[in-house]
Amino acid sequence: MNETIKLLTSHQSIRKFTNQPVTQEQLDTIISAAQWASSSSHVQAYSIIHVTNAGMRQQISEWTGNQSYVVNSPIFLVWCADLHRLRTAYEIHENADKAYLGTAENWIVATVDAALAAQNAAIAAESLGMGIVYIGSVRNHIEGVSTLLRLPKYTSPLFGMCIGYPDQDPGQRPRLPQKAVLHHNTYQTDGMEEQILKYDQTMKDYILKRTGGKRSGTWSEDMRNKLKTPTRMDVKAYLEAQGLDVE
Ligand SMILES: Cc1cc2nc3c(=O)[nH]c(=O)nc-3n(C[C@H](O)[C@H](O)[C@H](O)COP(=O)(O)O)c2cc1C
Fold first, then answer.
1. Which tens digits make up the pLDDT trace of 156-169?
2. What's the average model confidence in pLDDT over 34-60?
3. Mutation probe of ligand 1 site: the residue of 10, 79, 132, 134 with most atoms within 8 A of C-beta
4. Is 177:198 a contact under the CB 8 Å cutoff?
């Protein structure tokens, strides 16, 4: 196993950081790594907001359900899908009202671009000995976050990312068996339930160990619970108001 693969397969989200700062040079390196991600048609349809303002971080933390690391991490970034820049590029040549901009296809392009860049940043940070955690809960109050960050039309916050030096070693969360995620030629539904049940046992053992016997939920129960209640149902209306995913 080479060093890169060792790094990738030793990932764990970090939610407690030391006071050791991340230097501007390190941040520049992390963002540079992000920018070298592949990009659909080279559109580079994302923007990153580096939030340094303590009041803004406090507000976002509250909106995420008081996730303390949003306030306490040395670096907090918000990753946004961004079709606004493309609109501006189009406008240089002709009226962008005619552009096929906020289509479902371009929304996929922008979210994929942002995710690829973000994961490059995550790996870069981890390679420098730092830890990261993604913060999807910025979408708990998507409109509030959007207004706070003064995001223009044709953009949307997707997720935050806390970066810093780890002050914990929580342990790795087991993944689904490879068999469950890798299909050959065609999608295989055969054996799926068995694979899930096997994974449930793995996760149950892991959670029992991680919580000192206090919790014992399985992965399929977690997924059931997640999908049983409506979550962030305002996102669709927000996206439409932003001119995204509308055609
Ligand atoms: C898009 C995205 C959003 C996430 N949002 C949150 C979040 O709001 N808060 C949090 O503590 N973890 C969040 N996570 C971290 C996941 O819970 C974590 O990656 C997952 O449980 C697997 O654990 P691991 O990263 O330690 O392997 C998020 C991860 C992703 C990819």
1. 999 999 999 999 99
2. 98
3. 134
4. yes
